[in-house]
């Protein structure tokens, strides 16, 4: 499956060098795959709840470099067919690794998510997503 999409959300992070961060995001992305010689192009709408533990590698007054790993629950808001006889799973779980930087009030993160469970019972696939996000800390 190939995907391209967008997300918006909120997060909270503890202030220690070894930190915990929780998030709530809404994401949408498209996917393309072939099943039994037929092409499918679903669009997903999800609520995501990532929780991760991270480490602040470099921290100055104006810049922070950090890395983290964690897990993410994904809830599909729209029920869709994965194949003619099956729907995509409503709830999936990912593991992820993240590297990011905060410069003044802006945050940039690069994250790799890999699904722990299959996307549906008929498709032997797991989602793999590389995401680049830009945020603003209020």
Task: Describe, in plain words, how this protein is organized in 3D.
The chain is mainly β and 138 residues long. It has one domain (2-136). It is 0% helix and 73% strand. The protein has strands at 2-13, 18-35, 38-40, 43-59, 63-76, 81-83, 86-87, 91-103, 106-115, 128-136. The strands form two sheets. Strands 1, 2, 3, 4, 5, 8, 9 and 10 form an eight-stranded antiparallel sheet that branches. Strands 6-7 form a two-stranded antiparallel ribbon. A hairpin with a 4-residue loop joins strand 1 (2-13) and strand 2. The mean pLDDT is 92. Residues 14-118 form the Outer membrane protein beta-barrel domain. This is PorT family protein.
Secondary-structure element order, N to C: EEEEEEEEEE
* Low-pLDDT windows of residues: none
Shape: elongated
What's the total helix number? 0
**How many domains in all?**
1
Estimate the helix proportion, in percent.
under 10%
* Oligomerization category of the chains in this entry: single chain
Radius of gyration: 17 Å
Structural class per helix/strand content? Answer: mainly beta
First-residue to last-residue Cα separation: 35 Å
Features:
mainly beta, 8-stranded antiparallel sheet, two-stranded antiparallel ribbon, 0% helix, elongated
In short:
This protein is mainly β and 138 residues long.
Topology:
Elements: E1 2-13, E2 18-35, E3 38-40, E4 43-59, E5 63-76, E6 81-83, E7 86-87, E8 91-103, E9 106-115, E10 128-136
Antiparallel strand pairs: 1-2, 2-3, 2-4, 4-5, 5-8, 6-7, 8-9, 9-10
